[in-house]
Fold this protein.
Amino acid sequence: MRQHKLALCRDHYLDWIPEQTERFIKKYEMFQRDEKILVAVSGGKDSLSLWDILARLGYQADGLYIGLGIDEGIAYSSESQRLTETFARERGLKLHVVDVQREYGQPIPVLAQRSQRGQGRPCAVCGLAKRHVMNRIARDLGYNVLATGHNLDDEAAVLFGNTLQWAGEFLQRQSPVLPESPGLARKVKPLCRFYEREMAAYAILRGIEYIYEECPFAEGAPSIYYKELLNKLETDKPGSKLIFYLRFLEARSQGLFADPIPRAVALHPCPNCGQPTSNNDWCSFCKMIEKTKVAAE
Amino acid sequence: MTVKLILRGQEYEVRPGMTLLSSLEKIAVLPESVLATRAGEMILEDEILKDGDVINLIAVISGG
């Protein structure tokens, strides 16, 4: 790990990752030992590793898998679900499964097509559905915290994209912890300071079987392009990604991105699902589902 | 006298005696974007590749 000027053997590496995760949980005040954590698991290396780490550290962490219904000839969702269920069963961990098609009528690609959101890509609808389901399950089942497996490369790529556009509102909100608010669970990213490569190494060395295939719709996504650019920089200047992200967090905490005129966003419960929304009527998710029903008629 | 590198089903051949890092540069793959295994064991960038080695490169970039 050139960015840390550190070389560890297998056993020490497998201890170092949970130790560092515990340090980040405390440093950013993510959660306490008595809180119930819901880990959003996709079957990928990051989320399964996060669940493994939290379980090893002794936290009360259950999993949530959202079946998106993405097939595209490689059975992407069903294979992800199989790997996630196997992971949970082998470790005796509790897993909640929500199937989008069963609950909302259609799989993600069809919802995206019928709602005409996202300019031909289902990623916008996928993100909207995942946020809705994660928050619903956390609220309905009494979880204090929702944990996701975002790693440093994910965070640096989002930061890079937002910086290119000077998207102040998004820069202000990017953080290892998003505090809870009425109707919205606290969201935390305990892996936000680990490189993507470090998490892949952890998963492989721990013998975690994860889905190697990329989501078929991710090809050509801007975030992947930004990750490649940042990896070129990292190869020439080890530690660049980490410094980029940490200096940003520092600047943010010192108020660099603070709104000069603080504006309170009024949230109220969606009349259909009850989740908080800034819309005047139904939330974006309920509107999207309704639109797909109308389109099907 | 070759070393085989496999990434996402695509095969590349390099000369033995190079380090993993040099071989990645040779086939234009960013070291930051992959992990390498030989016979199921992870190997590091300074590992010297030997004749007949088959190196599996695991892409680590994900997301969308």
Remarks:
- The interface with chain A takes residues 30-33, 35, 37, 42, 58-64 of chain B (CB under 8 Å).
- The mean pLDDT of chain B is 93.
- Chain B has one helix and five strands.
- The beta strands of chain B are 3-7, 10-14, 34-38, 41-43, 54-59.
